[in-house]
Peroxidase
Amino acid sequence: MASSTCYFAGLSLLCWLLASSSTASAQLSPNFYVTTCPHLENIVHFTMAHVIRQDHRMGASMLRLFFHDCFVNGCDASVLLDDTPTLQGEKNAYPNQNSLRGFEVIDRIKTSVEARCPNTVSCADILALAARDAVKLLGGPTWTVPLGRRDTTTASMSAANANLPPPTANLSSLISLFASKNLTARDMTALSGAHTVGLARCSSFRTRIYNEPNIDASFAAVQKSACPVVGGDDNLVVLDMSTPIRFDNGYFKNLMARQGLLHSDQELFNGGSQDAWVRLYARSNHAFAQDFIVAMVNMGNIAPLTGSSGEIRRNCRFVN
């Protein structure tokens, strides 16, 4: 982690990127497809812009797909694999059931990329670029994505069930889960800011709004109208009531007002070690954007397959 001197000198992004350099990042390069598929980023951005104009939710969905991919054995597109008679994918793992969406968007991008650059670009890299463009198109920051990942030929239902943080997790569990992926608590808090967009199902926050003391009473009352004590498990509520379709620091302002929708959200501002980061991000959208960029690059460096490992899938849903 960058030193406080480095941070307050206004060099947070540069210093933290240098401090967070790794073998994985050295194997990836933003220029990986510069000669083999020079129009790749334009293709991804054009498709994402069209999709998000039609459905703003898809921006949050792309972020969630990328997160759920990287946290299960690395950023290798395992989350995109369908079940087959010989392979059990991750789509039906408990954290993914009825919550992941946007697979058809990746299919659409992949088809366009294959038409221009056949057998060249991995599904894992397409997902990383789609997540970046989703943030930008919702009004958030943009960044250079290191590329060169390859696609796995396997998936792990058990890892998906074990490695993805549940909405009921406490702070120590969250820190431990992120540390297991070489992500710091600061990374974790910045990445959690992705909950400034998107929706959550009633079943993931019912216990919080009815039973937890660290919640604003008027906020809880509003949520109870959409999430009854019994039934309505699949009813959807926005994670950030203030600016639900804009990527900004509203999430952190909500936490300070005790209006985090998920238990795991409010744990970041509950008298613990992350309170100072929440205060900083609530005060400065710029500070949040800088740290979110670094955290996304760090997450994208989780155990990528490179070189001759894995493959370049022709169809993101199936092994070649």
Remarks:
- The mean pLDDT is 92.
- Strands lie at 199-201, 236-238.
